[in-house]
């Protein structure tokens, strides 16, 4: 039996900060684990709706697979171009437009900064970077009471207590340790009646990828392949894998789905490095690729992981839901990326690197975004409740961002009403959907009821309108073009002092908040990527959308004249919120649209006053 450490030695270690003792910060309403796009959007949404929120990220930067550590571009429903407004809005649109305006050089580090800035800007949100969530502390076996976390460089431990938790980490370690039901691998076709599934089940998943970036140096640049890297001496060795662009790496440098993408993560990374440097050697030293002047400037060391655990909610999304464009009663998000299936061996399989099955826009229910057996646990992102086949569509980051915003919004309702997620899905879904719609999240088949919108209680008139795009469209509750209707107001005269909207009431109103939704070209694609190839495609936004309103004034009618109470310049947001303290007290308010980012006329999508 070992001797006990003398108490004097323990006291000395504590005094010298050698032992780590947990610190207990103030309690939270919601703790979000994982700082990818799902976690970031969940945390921001919850904080904006009043939740005291903690966001725990085990890396030094936010963004997950989109961060500077991995550099995968954010994809979503706008992958398919059909002239329809498919693009995701809400927080992810806010972030993408900010990046478009402030990061025209497309720097991955600037994207990191924008995410960091957006999270730090929320007063109810505390960020724990470089902090590993170690284990949940359970209560009654079905409820998480707290999470123990360690911030590595500062040698500090925290006990993060909350009423609600959201595991948006992808791998879902905390959810798994809490005992949340999950699956790994591919179901058989019989489980959910899926024609794209295999006849038998297995534990194989989609593989992981390593990205690289290269630069044209203007003069010949040699490359010597590491001895341990693989060789691809001919194009036949890389058949079906396009490698004619060198600026940004290839998602098809993929491997590891036949192994455990969690426990074998480091071995998978080592194999991917061998593949990556072998591919670059092929480009530089074999055949005529025109890459003589190109050199590697960055190689990822963190695998971009596609799939690991998928947690079980009260509903499991499946192939038929996607192909039929199902609209659930408890819809809180949507997807539209194709069912994108890769061979589990990745580049080790010489067949085509992926197969796409196109799907219409489909809804995602709240019942797929919480654990079926841990009562206060939300799940969002690639660990949401879906079959392997449905997951092949839902896994992309813009869709994950929508799931995150839905979870953060639902958590705010749960916190306010003292409910668990299952109760909110059953009893408060209309309130959650109304909040999402007001926050510019598109929900299939739904429209904003306008409850509490003072603009609907007044008389609305415009300086001019294009036929079919009258001001009344601003109050119809649909915030994007659908079918033959633009669901927007469009002036017939150009932006300037003579282009305005006016709302009047019979009696004076108190207005504390004004929200405008502008036109950000939702029918076009908006990528976040370092690959110039994408920007050569048709209908891809490369600068601030020209129809977005750049400058406007808010005026009230006082003492027989219009007085400007707010002047907004250089707006880059689709969803623009202006708050007034003290509140405006008026019976007439006018919005004067003085400048756009390039369009001759003004387009406004929605108007909400409270």
Task: Describe, in plain words, how this protein is organized in 3D.
The strands form seven sheets. Strands 1, 2, 3, 4, 5, 6, 7 and 19 form an eight-stranded mixed beta sheet that branches. Strands 20, 21, 22, 23, 24, 25 and 26 form a seven-stranded antiparallel beta sheet that branches. The chain has three domains: 23-186 and 307-438, FAD/NAD(P)-binding domain (3-Layer(bba) Sandwich), CATH 3.50.50; 208-305, no CATH class; 454-609, Jelly Rolls. Helix 2 (37-48) runs parallel beside helix 10, helix 3 (91-102) crosses helix 4 and helix 10 (397-417) packs across helix 11 (421-427). Strand 6 and strand 7 form a beta hairpin. The protein starts with 6 loop residues before the first helix and ends with a strand. The chain has twelve helices and 26 strands. The chain has 610 residues and is an alpha+beta fold. The protein has helices at residues 7-15, 37-48, 91-102, 108-120, 173-177, 189-192, 265-285, 319-323, 388-394, 397-417, 421-427, 429-438; strands at 22-23, 28-33, 53-56, 125-128, 131-139, 143-151, 156-167, 182-183, 208-209, 212-216, 254-255, 294-299, 304-305, 310-311, 331-335, 339-341, 355-357, 362-365, 377-379, 459-462, 489-494, 500-518, 549-558, 561-568, 575-596, 601-609. The model has no long low-confidence stretch (mean pLDDT 94). Helix content is 21%, strand content 27%.
The number of distinct β-strands equals 26
**Largest sheet geometry:** 8 strands, mixed
The class by helix and strand makeup works out as alpha+beta
Mean of pLDDT? 94
CATH architecture of the largest domain: 3-Layer(bba) Sandwich
Rg calculated over all Cα atoms: 26 Å
Q: Unreliable stretches, pLDDT < 50, 5 or more residues?
A: none
Beta strand %: 25-35%
């Amino acid at each position: 039996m070992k001797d006990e450490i003398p108490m004097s030695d323990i006291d000395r270690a504590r005094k010298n900060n050698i032992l780590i003792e947990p610190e207990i910060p103030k309690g939270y309403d919601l703790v979000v684990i994982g700082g990818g796009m799902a976690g970031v959007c969940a945390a921001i949404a919850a904080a904006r709706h009043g939740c005291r929120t903690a966001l725990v990220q085990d890396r030094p930067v936010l963004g997950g697979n989109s961060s500077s550590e991995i550099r995968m571009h954010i994809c979503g429903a706008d992958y398919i171009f059909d002239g329809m407004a498919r693009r995701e809005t809400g927080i992810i649109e806010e972030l993408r437009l900010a990046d478009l305006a402030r990061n025209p050089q497309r720097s991955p580090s600037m994207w990191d900064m924008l995410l960091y800035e957006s999270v730090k800007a929320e007063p109810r949100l505390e960020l724990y970077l470089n902090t590993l969530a170690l284990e949940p502390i359970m209560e009654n076996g079905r409820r998480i009471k707290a999470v123990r976390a360690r911030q590595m460089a500062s040698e500090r431990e925290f006990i993060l207590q909350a009423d609600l938790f959201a595991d948006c980490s992808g791998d879902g370690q905390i959810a798994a340790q809490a005992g949340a039901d999950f699956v790994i691998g591919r179901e058989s076709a019989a489980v959910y009646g899926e024609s794209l599934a295999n006849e038998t089940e297995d534990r194989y998943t989609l593989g992981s990828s390593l990205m690289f970036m290269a630069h044209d140096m203007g003069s010949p640049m040699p490359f010597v392949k590491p001895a341990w890297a693989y060789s691809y001496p001919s194009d036949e060795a890389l058949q079906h894998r396009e490698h004619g662009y060198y600026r940004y790496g290839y998602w098809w440098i993929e491997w590891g789905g036949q192994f455990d993408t969690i426990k074998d993560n480091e071995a998978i990374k080592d194999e991917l490095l061998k593949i990556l440097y072998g591919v670059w050697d092929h480009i530089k030293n074999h055949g005529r690729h025109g890459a003589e002047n190109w050199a590697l400037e960055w190689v990822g060391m963190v695998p971009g992981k596609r799939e690991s655990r998928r947690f079980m909610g009260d509903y499991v999304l499946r192939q038929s839901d996607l192909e039929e464009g199902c609209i659930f009663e408890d819809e809180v998000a949507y997807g539209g990326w194709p069912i994108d299936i890769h061979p589990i061996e990745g580049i080790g399989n010489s067949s085509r690197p992926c197969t796409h099955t196109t799907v219409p826009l489909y809804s995602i229910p709240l019942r797929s975004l919480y654990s079926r057996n841990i009562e206060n646990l939300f799940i969002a992102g690639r660990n949401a409740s879906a079959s392997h086949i449905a997951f092949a569509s839902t896994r992309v980051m813009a869709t994950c961002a929508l799931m995150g915003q839905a979870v953060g919004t639902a958590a705010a309702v749960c916190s306010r009403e003292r409910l668990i997620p299952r109760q909110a899905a059953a009893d408060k879904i209309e309130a959650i959907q109304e909040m999402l719609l007001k926050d510019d999240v598109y929900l299939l088949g739904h429209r904003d009821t306008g409850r509490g919108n003072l603009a609907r209680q007044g008389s609305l008139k415009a300086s001019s309108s294009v036929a079919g795009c009258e001001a009344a469209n601003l109050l119809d509750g649909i915030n994007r073009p659908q079918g033959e209707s633009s669901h927007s107001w469009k002036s017939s005269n150009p932006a300037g002092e003579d282009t305005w909207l006016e709302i009047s009431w019979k009696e004076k109103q108190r207005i504390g908040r004004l929200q405008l939704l502008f036109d950000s070209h939702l029918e076009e694609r908006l990528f976040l990527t370092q690959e110039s190839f994408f920007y050569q495609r048709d209908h891809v936004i490369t600068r601030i959308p020209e129809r977005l309103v750049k400058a406007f004034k808010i005026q009230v009618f006082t003492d027989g004249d219009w007085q400007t109470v707010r002047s907004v310049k250089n707006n880059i947001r689709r969803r623009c919120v202006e708050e007034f303290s003290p509140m405006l007290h008026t019976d007439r308010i006018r919005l004067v649209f003085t400048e756009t980012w390039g369009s001759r006329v003004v387009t406004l999508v929605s108007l909400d006053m409270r």
